[in-house]
Amino acid sequence: MNLNELSILSLYSAMAVYALAFIAFSFDLAKRSAAVKSAAELTGEAESRRAAAEESHGLKSGGTTTLTRISARIANDAATPYGRSASLRVGVSLTVLAWLIHLVADVLRGVAAERVPWANMYEFAMTGTLLIVTVFLIVLTRADLRFLGTFVTGMVLVLLGIAALRFYVEVAPLPPALQSAWLVIHVFVASLGTGFFALGFALSGVQLLQFRREASVAGPTGGRLRFLATLPSSATLENLAYRVNIIGFILWTFTLMAGSIWAEQAWGRYWGWDTKEVWTFIIWTIYAGYIHARATRGWRGSRSAWLAIIGFSAVMFNFGVVNVFFKGLHAYSGL
Amino acid sequence: MSRPSDHYDSPALAAVSQPRLGFTGWLRWFWRQLTNMRTALFLLLLLAIAAVPGSLVPQRSSDPNGVTQYFADNPDLAPVLDKVQAFDVYSSAWFSAIYLLLFISLIGCVIPRTKHHFQALRAKPPTTPARLSRLAGFTERTIPAGQSASLAVDSAKRMLKSGGYRVALFERGREFSVSAERGYLRETGNLVFHFALVGILITVGFGSGFGFSGQRVLVEGQTFVNTLLAYDSFNPGRFFNDESLKPYKLTLDDFKVKYETKNLKAYGQPLDFTADVTVTHRGEAPEKSQVKVNAPARTGGTDVYLLGNGYAPKITVKDPNGVVVFTDAVPFLPQDANLTSLGVVKVPDGLAEQLGLIGFFYPTQATMDSGAFFSSYPDLEYPLLTLNIYSGDLGLDKGVPTSVYALDTDKMTQLTGGKTGTKSIELKPGETQQLPNGLGSVTFDDANPGAKAGDFSGSVLRFASFDIHHDPTQLWVLTFAVLALLGLLTSLFVPRRRVWVKAIEEADGSVRLEYAGLARGEDPALESAVAELADRHTDLLLSTETAATASDKT
Ligand code: HEM
């Protein structure tokens, strides 16, 4: 078995473990829903429950608050407090394990190819998803976003599945057009930015659901997605999404600039409205719009969340559709 | 007004009673609309949407052949699309209108903010609010009697000042307070960012008019002199003046290609292209240099890029008496990854009839089951040139420029290949064949006649196509882009906040301390910053007190 075959084996193993993590996280969401239901039945009046929760955590009184970490604040503003969860911890542990195997797969591919493992669609997908999970795990150490586990593992699974089945190519050396230090920088930063945008997308999505729940006449514990009551309020989710998205935006700005510098070296002009350049620009503009929306009266909240969602959809479109089906100078999908 | 009135942080305007709108009134109204946040947002999103069609339809600027093809494929739709400038989206009237409006809005938005910001930079922090308890991170502490409220506030002031805050002291009865503000850099960064965008637009808009780009194909051994006439094609900017061309000489000495041979799954994939060139500036000694795909040569105020390469078989045509009527290394355009290449030779004079040759060159010729030839490897393992001969009118005399890579066969008769019944001419390097109808002969010259039999590696010359550019904006655009990035970083990550510390002397002699903050913009760490300040400040006060009491006892 050569290194590339080992890499493939590791990748499939990682996918299996991600699948298990996905199940654990889904299980946790189901348990949250159940907890919300029983809590609602116990008190009968969810609103008082929420008030009580806030009182006991000293949020409203603001008195001698000794909060030193944002995470504390995030965990505390859920409508229904949700205790420890074994499946949540299992989910996180499995994600870490899958991430390690995924990392091995990625590194082996790089060693087998004797270069960075991001030079064609298969490798972009492999490294990009690795970075999505990396960003997720790093953010977890600062804020309790474990409730996004289902989304993250689910998305990574789907992307890796597509990569392994549709994008797979054999190890090949770099064509002269890609032999540049900018491949290392530009593509890596773009993938890292995508990791942050993915998380921002998920947070904005949950924010919209949460907002609907909060505004719904059926009461805050009604509706189908009952687990939402155990998640932070839509306002907190919005702030979190913003923080994640602006990091993504800065990385994307850098991607755009690094890409231009590379384009100048390779093609003799730093900007030529090539299809891939166009889409990078569109994405940048949408997220600039998102940041503006957050500062515009009447556009904070749900409307800006939609922009973040559209922005990430454009990122995925850029990766999955523009790379494969659009004609342009960026012909490096390897397909 | 510093920020647009619909910025979320601006005070809500009372419903503006409509004054009589005269002309200037309307103008002012229009200007206010143009420079508010909602318009900026709208224009930004519109710009994103307007950029999409250019990725769906080929653009003249980046893919002119694609446009020609599109016209051929969609003869009904294409002219309609052309009317709305769909093939020139990024220079179209509508796209330009959007970004120009956006930038006018931007300037109109940023200038008043800059003015306001200069004032804010010189102003004192605002008076301490009467009630801090409603503000973010409000914290109360009490220290026992024996300390003075004004000294306590003094020490808070010093602490804040060393933390980068601008501070001002206030006193109201027995209340002493310090008001502190920091993070002006945030707004500075934001303004720098927006100005840098304007800078980019202006440099690109005007500066690029002074540049040019030109293309030139060189066969190994050929020399090019940087003058207008020497270019195969040339696109000057609006303000370009050809006296700015420095007439240096550039010779393509050698073009080296390396192909993958070990990895069977990528067999024949190019690994490296290197053009060895010699550059001679007027009155200077020749200099050796190299051009590679990601490494242009920068010389004489121009950048020389390697954009393409291929084979240039040397073909000689002689008349029946053996007099040479044509001889040249003809660049053949690659058609696939294994460099099956297509080329055209035109012989207008010297023969009984005008002659046109359409040739295919296979660096490593192989035969399909159908009998058709193809190339199975891009390097010169088993080179073969096939030629179809046409005679008649080449159409060169009408004064209409024609492409050297295409042959218009409308007024010509095919003599070999296809349905003529006569076999195409097939030549290996060094071979000669007679043309049909006793027209003369054609030779595929071997570029390296001394090589061992069977070694074809040097038998055909290569050509390289160079793009030669001069773009005076590059450095400026880069500078503005870096400024934009730095501005963005500071404006998104430097927190701008106000913090107040108030000390109130209670009736019993103890001192009640109040701490609170106010975020100006996104500031996730505000509450923890206030809490930390309260901790550090009270600790300091208590420790100086214990120190004081300790020294009292001795
Ligand atoms: C080319 C057009 C524009 C782009 C690409 C753009 C982009 C951005 C970006 C990326 C930010 C966030 C970073 C920062 O705070 O510095 C921002 C902030 C801001 N922009 Fe723009 N902008 C544009 C035009 C405008 C216009 C026309 C206005 C005025 C109407 C404006 C007003 C603002 C304001 C007030 C903020 C601060 C937002 C806040 O308080 O958080 N921008 N812009």
UniProtKB/TrEMBL annotation, chain B:
Keywords associated with the record: Cytochrome c-type biogenesis, Membrane, Transmembrane, Transmembrane helix
GO biological process: cytochrome complex assembly
UniProt keyword annotation of Membrane present: yes
Main location: membrane
GO CC annotations on file: membrane
Compartments, record wording: Membrane
Membrane topology recorded in Swiss-Prot or TrEMBL: Multi-pass membrane protein
Keyword Transmembrane helix: yes
The protein's name in its UniProt record: Cytochrome c biogenesis protein ResB
Source organism: Cryobacterium shii
